[in-house]
């Protein structure tokens, strides 16, 4: 089903952000046609008067030219905190491209998280930004699980785009998020991406929103053997699974010579040969100092 698309005029597009990872957030679109079943951003519906299901609407934002873009010099700007800036519709409307053109030369530090390879279109423009960092969300190598979870491009296409950016010397991140207990093979993903990214971020699946029931239905149908584990974690609040996984990945990282940290405050960019693994599991409960990152 085609999404309902509407053009909207907004007074400004850049907003101060409370997210600990950035100073400002920008969302060139309202809604997200990737329609991930675990999307935390679906809460946005409440604020935008949309009655359509999440993933079935998209507002395309038009804003006045950004005045004095140089005031963002050195500031961290996160493009796409509650949408993907490289949705398929970006090919037509080019609002993310327009945003980058308006910020070009400002000295802003751009952070983008995407599940798309359309970003390759803008690689030359993006390269002109200092401290650029691009993350691809990849929580499986199994294309059929991916198709069960989102409408975005294949994992292989995301990996190919990441590789191309990495080869161009741009700081790249493989964001293993959300990690589905016993479904996401974290070690296999690390093995697959370790030569083509600078960071590997780990984030556990959270089920706080209305999508909890959706994910439980999925587990019941496709992985009934995992139902009791999911109930333990998400209904009884047992976090021991994440502690075990934390230890397992930590020792795997040591075996294969990768650095493993739980707080990336001091590591904004890394262009080392090998990626740094950053753990964002239950930052408030397991790792008191770790920083959260908005899940894409
Ligand atoms: S999780 Fe991210 S990519 Fe998926 S629907 Fe939500 S905003 Fe879009």
What's the helix and strand layout?
Blueprint: E1 4-9, E2 14-16, E3 24-26, E4 29-30, H1 44-48, E5 57-62, E6 76-79, H2 90-93, H3 95-103, E7 109-114, H4 123-126, E8 133-137, H5 143-149, H6 155-167, E9 171-179, H7 186-193, E10 199-204, H8 211-222, H9 227-234, H10 240-256, E11 259-261, E12 276-279
Parallel strand pairs: 1-5, 3-6, 6-7, 7-8, 8-9, 9-10, 10-12, 11-12
Antiparallel strand pairs: 2-3, 4-5
The chain binds iron/sulfur cluster (SF4).
Keywords:
296 residues, alpha/beta, pyruvate-formate lyase- activating enzyme, 9-stranded mixed beta sheet, 3-stranded mixed beta sheet, 10 helices, 19% strand, globular, disordered C terminus, binds iron/sulfur cluster
Short description:
The protein is an alpha/beta fold.
Account of the 3D structure:
The chain has 296 residues and is α/β, with parallel strands linked by helices. The protein contains ten helices and twelve strands. The chain has a nine-stranded mixed beta sheet with strand order 2-3-6-7-8-9-10-12-11, covered by helices on one side. Strands 1-5-4 form a three-stranded mixed beta sheet, with no helix packed on it. The chain is globular.
């Amino acid at each position: 089903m085609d999404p309902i698309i509407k053009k909207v005029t907004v007074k400004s597009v850049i907003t101060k952000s409370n997210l600990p990872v950035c100073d400002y957030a920008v969302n060139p679109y309202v809604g997200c046609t990737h329609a991930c079943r675990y999307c935390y951003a679906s809460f946005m519906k409440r604020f935008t008067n949309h009655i359509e299901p999440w993933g079935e609407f998209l507002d395309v934002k038009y804003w006045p030219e950004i005045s004095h873009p140089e005031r963002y010099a050195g500031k961290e700007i996160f493009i796409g905190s509650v949408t993907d800036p490289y949705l398929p519709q970006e090919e037509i409307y080019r609002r993310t491209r327009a945003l980058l053109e308006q910020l070009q030369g400002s000295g802003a530090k751009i952070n983008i998280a995407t599940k798309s390879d359309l970003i390759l279109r803008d690689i030359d423009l993006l390269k002109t930004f200092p401290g650029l960092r691009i993350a691809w969300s990849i929580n499986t190598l199994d294309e059929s699980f991916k198709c069960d979870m989102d409408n975005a491009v294949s994992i292989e296409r995301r990996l190919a785009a990441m590789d191309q950016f990495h080869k161009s010397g741009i700081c790249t991140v493989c964001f293993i998020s959300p990690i589905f207990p016993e479904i996401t093979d974290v070690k296999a993903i690390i093995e697959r991406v370790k030569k083509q990214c600078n960071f590997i971020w780990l984030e556990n699946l959270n089920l706080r929103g209305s999508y909890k029931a959706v994910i439980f239905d999925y587990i019941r149908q496709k992985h009934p053997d995992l139902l009791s584990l999911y109930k333990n974690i998400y209904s009884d609040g047992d976090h021991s699974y994440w502690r075990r996984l934390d230890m397992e990945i930590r020792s795997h990282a040591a075996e294969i010579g990768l650095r493993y940290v739980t707080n990336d405050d001091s590591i904004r960019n890394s262009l080392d040969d090998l990626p740094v693994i950053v753990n964002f599991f239950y930052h408030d409960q397991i790792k008191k100092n770790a920083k959260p990152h908005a899940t894409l």
